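>> received
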Amino acid sequence: MEIKGVTNSPLFVNKTKNSKPEAAQNQDAKDKIEISSEARDMAKVDLSPARLEELRNRVDSNFYDSDEVQNKVADKVLAEIKK
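>> returned
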């Protein structure tokens, strides 16, 4: 086996030029979000302070990381996809 030195040159060089400088391309980019009416309705649901505290405690105790919960979520997602 023969090793022929190490080089600092890149293996692949992109020889195409962009028509706009990078700064100009970033100015044209705009973020856009679309929220469905169903999601808007869900956002209006008021949670009682007790329910909110219960949810916080579940998150803090890693309740949602258990295999049982993750399997239930996966089953419901699959059932929804199959509809």
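>> Residues 4 and 11 are 15 Å apart (CA to CA).
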